[in-house]
Amino acid sequence: MRIYVDIDDVLSETAHSLCALAQSEFGRRVEYSSVREFDLQRVFSLSDDEMQRFRVLSHLPEVLASFAPTQGAADGVKSLVAAGHTVDLVTGRPASSRLGTEMWLKSAGLEDFAVTYVDKYGRSGIYESRPDDPPTVDMPALAARRYHVAIDDSPIVLAKLSAWRDTKVLVFDRPWNADFILAPNMRRVSAWADILEIVGAS
Predict the structure, then answer these.
(1) Based on the domain organization, do 123 and 71 belong to the same domain?
(2) Are residues 156 and 130 in the same domain?
(3) pLDDT at 104
(4) Is the pLDDT of residue 73 over 90?
(5) Whether residues 79 and 155 fall in one domain
(6) Of all helices (H) and strands (E), which one includes residue 170?
(7) Which domain, by its residues, includes 72?
(8) Are the beta carbons of 115 and 88 closer than 8 angstroms?
(9) Which is nearest to 126 in space by CA: 37, 65, 24, 58?
(10) Are 66 and 52 in contact (CB under 8 A)?
(11) CA 8, 13, 15 angle in degrees (round to 5)?
(12) Does one domain contain both 113 and 47?
C-alpha cells in the first residue's frame, strides 16, 4: 500500500515545542492540552507582528531540529516499509524549511525518506522562498497519487481528506482535533501501535 504520513504532530511533537517557544519568546504560557484549535495566533494571543516573528522563529533550522519525536513514530515508519508498504512523508511546512526538516529526519533516523511539501493551508505567499527550495504541490496533486492510507492530525486537512473516499484516513488524536467529526473513511488513532495494527505492520 501507499501511505501518506504527516510530519508535524504525527512524527514529531511539534505543538509541545511551539508552546515552549511561545512562552520563552513572547511570555505566553499555554499548556499543550489547552491547544484546542489550529489557529496558533489565537491560541497564543499574538499580534500580527508577533505572529510573523513566531512564524520565522518556529521555522529556523535549529528549532525544527529540536522537536522531540512522537513515541514509536520512527520505528513505526520503518516497520511499514519492512512490511512492504511505500511511505511518503508529507508536510504543510513551507519548502524553505527543508534544512531544518532534513536535520530533524536525520536525528530521528529517517534521513533516507524524501519529503513532499504541500500547500495544505493556502500559505504559499506568506513565507520567503529560495531558489533551491524543493517544489511544493497542492492538495489536488497530492490526491492524484491515490494513497491507500493517509495519517494526519490537522482539522483543516482532515476536512479535505474526507473527500478521498478510497483512502483510509487515520486521524492522529490531538487536542485540536478532539471535536472533529469523522467522515466514513476515517478512524481515530492515539498511538503508532494503533497505526501498525490497522495497516498490518505490527
Answers:
(1) yes
(2) yes
(3) 97
(4) yes
(5) yes
(6) strand 168-172
(7) 2-13+67-199
(8) no
(9) 58
(10) no
(11) 80
(12) no
Percent of the chain at pLDDT exceeding 90: 90
The interaxial angle of helices 48-58 and 14-26, nearest 10 deg, is: 130
**Pair 58, 83 in one domain:** no
H or E element that contains 4: strand 2-6
| Cell digits of residue 5 | 504520513
Take residue 15 and report the three cell numbers written for it. 505543538
- Cα–Cα distance for residue pair 194/151, rounded to 1 Å: 12
* Dist CA 192 CA 158 (whole Å): 18
User: In this structure, are 32 and 84 located in the same domain?
Assistant: no
**157 and 57 co-located in one domain:** no
Give the number of domains in the chain: 2
Return all residues near 102 (Cβ < 8 A) that are at least 6 apart.
111, 115
Provide the β-strand partners of residue 11: none
Least confident of 53-67, 75-89, 119-133: 119-133
pLDDT digits over 125-168, tens only?
A: 666 667 778 899 999 999 999 999 999 999 999 999 999 999 99
Whether the Cβ atoms of residue 144 and residue 180 lie closer than 8 Å to each other: no
Mean predicted confidence (pLDDT) in 165-191: 97
Q: What's the pLDDT score for residue 38?
A: 83
